[in-house]
Amino acid sequence: MIWIDGSFGEGGGQILRTALSLSLATGIPFRIENIRAGRKNTGLLRQHLTAVRAAAEIGSAEVEGATLGSSALTFSPGAVRAGEYRFAVGTAGSGTLVFQTILPALLRAPAPSRVIIEGGTHNEFAPPFDFLATTLLPLIRRMGARVSLTLERYGFYPAGGGRFVAVIEPCPGTEAPPYRSSR
After folding, report:
1. What residue spans of 89-170 are helical by DSSP H?
2. Which terminus of the chain, N or C, has fewer Cβ atoms within 10 Å?
3. 57/155 Cα distance (integer angstroms)
């Protein structure tokens, strides 16, 4: 198990999202404490909790501490599963950051996946949907990935309500390593 101090650097949610992505990719569990300690409202907010729940569902993970406001979390991944998923932030929180959390794992899944994400699509401190569609995905496609995004509704602060669909096909030769977690 890897221990992570969530107050490191700018102390925001990116440490958590990166830890989730890497844990899914490697099968190595982690514990993070001081989640978002560098922020005015510390702990897990809805968009962070949605990213945790999305990673847990896709990665068959066991999770402790996945509650609103939690400042500590333990994440023990299992096997990554392809499938049909729907994740709703429930606020104007960034759906694009939830997508970025789970994309690497689904690129290594055993089959294609379809993911619907609802929440904010254009947030002040997160990459907007248009960035994903016109900048990030073309670069990822150049590396051999096949990912498509469709914006169904815009979601702006403070209401949210946005919705987009991602279809992710696994990259050939990048299958996830054998399950390694020792829960």
Report:
1. 95-106, 129-131, 137-142
2. C
3. 24
Find all residues with CB under 8 Å of 107, minimum gap 6, and list them. Answer: 145, 147, 168, 170, 171, 174
Closest CA to 28 of 75, 80, 98, 81: 75
CB 64 within 8 A of CB 9: no
Maximum distance among all Cα pairs of the chain, rounded to whole angstroms: 43
Burial of 138 (0-12, 13-18, 19+ CB in 10 A): exposed
CA distances from 20 to 53, 155, 165, 171 (A): 10, 24, 21, 20
Asked if 164 contacts 158 with a C-beta cutoff of 8 angstroms, the reply is no
Contact 96, 127 (CB under 8 A): yes
Residue corresponding to tokens 């404490």: 33
Listed in sequence order, the DSSP H helices in the chain are 14-26, 46-58, 95-106, 129-131, 137-142
Strand partners, 165: 116, 150
| Local mean pLDDT, 10-residue blocks, the chain (183 residues) | 92 93 96 93 94 98 97 97 97 95 95 97 93 95 93 94 96 62 52
pLDDT (0 to 100) of residue 10: 83
